[in-house]
Amino acid sequence: MGTVKIPIGPQHPALKEPESFLISLDGERIKDVGMRLGYNHRGVEKAAEGRTYIQNIYLIERVCGICSHSHSTAFIQAVEEVAGVEIPKRAKYIRSIVGELERVHSHLLWLGVAGHEVGFDTLLMYSWRDREVVMELLAAIGGNRVNYAMNTFGGARRDLDKDMLERILKAVDVLEDRTKYYINIATKETTLIKRLSGVGYISKDDVIKLGTVGPTGRASGISRDARKDDPYAAYGEVDFNVITDTHCDVYGRAVVRLLELMETYKIIRQLIKNIPDGDIAVRFPRRVPAGEATSRYEAPRGEDVHYVKGNGTDKPERVKLRAPTLANLMSVAKMLEDDNLADVPIAIAAIDPCFSCTDRMIKLEHSSGNSEIVTWGDLRKRSIDFYRTQHGIDFSELNKKYRGNL
Amino acid sequence: MTELNKENAIKDKVTSKFSFMNEKVLVKRERRVYADVELSNFRQVFDYIVKDLEFCRICMITGFDEGENFGFMYHLTDDKGMIFDLKTYAPKTNPVIKTITDTFPGGVLYERELVDMFGVKVDGLPEGERYPLPDGWPEGQYPLRKDWNRDMLKD
Known about the structure:
The complex is a heterodimer. By secondary structure, chain A is of the alpha+beta class. Chain A has helices at 44-49, 53-61, 68-83, 89-117, 121-142, 162-188, 190-196, 204-210, 214-218, 226-229, 250-274, 324-336, 344-349, 376-391, 396-403; strands spanning 4-8, 20-26, 29-36, 151-152, 155-156, 291-299, 302-310, 316-322, 362-365, 371-374. Chain A folds into three domains: 4-36, no CATH class; 44-349, Cytochrome-c3 Hydrogenase, chain B; 362-403, no CATH class. In chain A, strands 1-2-3 form a three-stranded antiparallel beta sheet. A three-stranded antiparallel beta sheet of chain A has the order 6-7-8. By secondary structure, chain B is of the alpha/beta class. The chains are: A alpha+beta, B alpha/beta.
């Protein structure tokens, strides 16, 4: 039988983003992968040229739902360098703390998606339940689950007070406890290990050649991490390890992300222990002088690279940015070579998908015309009651353990 | 305060290897080196930085519309956190550059972006799907040129 070509995408090819893959198959085996990208190109770089620097913070923060803090920090760092403004030390610590919390939310989200893609939906339910711990924390810090808007030119927009820092530490204890549980699963659960091992293989040489970044590159044995190599914010002042692995497959990528979370908790604890007192921002000029800067930021999926050129006005001359997925997509074709068709979703998802999850309140409209606001707490209570009354399973003790009272 | 020793060593290597690079290499700050090079000399300087100075990865390519010329900045990085921003130019009357995908196969999307967004020709760029504009995008419309605006799409 000849080659069969199967289009996957552009609607949701395993992840909630439009990309189109044309898979050539010999039987079940993938022989070749064609790719068409750009379905979601929004013209952000052009739009940035027509907006003031301040407006651009809000635009750039929305490049990505999950890495909102990553992109805004990368952009702001470049602008601050052009303007020659040094931010207060406390602001650097705040940026790093929020950045690491963002990494927790992104990696736990990925873990759930990975579980879902291989039919292990219990893992999805567990990891997304636990992820709520960090989502609620981010909402408490910035007023929103994904676009926390903590950044501004010259520093941070909000301080983290003593109570909030303590709350973060408590949440980190819970998250660390749960992450240990997932590490235990990932290293001992035979079904999961066998399903992920050998899938989406990419060698160290290919990773170097294709410029793969983030956990995907690190799982093929390259020790690249902008936090370590090109320290920004407060990363020059914390002690942590860059996690690498030599499996070179989806399993390795899972292990790297999970072990990386343990380093993240270590980083957050150090930052909170050592955060200096003082101002959180300095005054920043409305007009930015002529000049240029290239900035890097280690986002959860890999390195964000931003370039900003100023021309002395309040609008940038040129803004260029590259998100890690663009760097990593080139390696997907290589990863899929000779894999089975059924491995496509998890192999694509293993470079890490992305979608926004800003819903945080549900408004119910009764047919009688009365409406009712249901909060997260109410929803959680209802689901616990549902399981207790309908299925005889009581989650209330577990809920108390991880969240305290509702 | 750092002495910028590593950065200056890179600068010295480039200027002593190529006499035409005198005064064209700039140490901007810790871990940031910048250089400007004419298109005719671009490839030999690029190869030297990549192969001899071990800037083994391309982060991205930034295109510029600078009036009479297009600018192209290749953001190269080594494994020690250094970024080398190497910039070259091509006249708008003949906007042609050569591909670097022979060295960095992963750079293909960055070059396709220059083709779509600036209307630049990249010699040696492998055949493939365009990126990032849609298939039905009108001929001769290049969004990142300074004289382009959204209204030009209507009709």
